[in-house]
Amino acid sequence: MKKWKFITSIGLAAFALAACSNEDEPKDHTTPPVEQPAETEQETPTEVETPNMTVETVQQYFAPDGSHLHYRGVGSEFAELDIQVRHIGEHYVALVESNGGSVVTTVYTLEDGDLIRVLREMTEFEETETGEMGDYILPTVERLDASEERVVVYREDAKKGDTFTIDDATWTIIDPSMTLKTDTETYEDVIHMQVVNEELTSDYYYKVGIGLIKHHDVMETEDKNNPFIVDSELESIEQQ
To answer: What's the pTM value of the predicted model, to 2 decimals?
Structure first.
């Protein structure tokens, strides 16, 4: 049986790492005594620069198994993305990403509180009896267990200014817990990471429980006042 291979050109957009679900986050809603006027001053943010979250499994970092995430694209024909979320065994999550011209599979696991990328490769597809492309083929648990890639892409206790070396590039955490408004929704506790490579600056926004929310590229051109800008922004999540 033949296998078809493709590779994405979007770089690390499938690194769906993401910010956090804070359903269990305690908050102080103490009401002042009746005889005293209620204070109008809002609570002052604490000095802690990381969201209050407890992530115990790699599955918690991403949308549920079988989810289909669609991203609208602006600025490039390859900016529109589709990502399929698939669980492999108990300890791995695969993201199968297509940008309309290529497909790549990236697999993650959780080790000692670190989100680890264990595999990133061209996606393989089965060939049907009619010679057409069939379903994509996911790597096996045995193969993932034996993988030596093991790249740390995020730590649960990461703080503003922390850096990660991913594929020879230095990624910096700009904000570990920000509010991000898109055309369709407002997201809280979003992680903002940035990588600068010569004339290209890429900003990625992630949320735990979903993955990638937005990818924003700015490339310098000869006209300094008109850079080349490409955006991929989460538009919908469907369960299949």
So the answer is: 0.76
